[in-house]
Amino acid sequence: MKRFAIFLISLFVFSCELATTEPILVTAEELLTAQAEIIRLAESVPCTNASEWKFTPMGNKACGGPARYIAYHQSVEREFLDLVNRFTAVQKAYNEKNNVLSDCLLVGPPRTIQCEGNKPVLVY
Fold first, then answer.
1. Domains of the chain: which residue ranges?
2. pLDDT, tens only, 48-68
């Protein structure tokens, strides 16, 4: 949880730095911690009715576009999308600052969501 707090502080600093064009200081470990927190929130609600679930792009590939899509329950939508949007912006800045390479394959959105074993499954 301490690492997540550090990530949130980094996000605040990142927001301020966008206006001043100062370098963004975030580590790969902080990105992984933030991603784990997003996944924890996504998995905090059991999937029993697929119509209550949505999906959104998450992350940023070095070549551009989302790194993946992730499902979330409508009850956590506001908090979830806020975390995902911050994560995506910070990952994009991290990729640019560190000259990260990616496979450049486009990740298309899923067609729908199904519930399997109380977990949402994206169907492509």
1. 2-123
2. 999 999 999 999 999 999 999
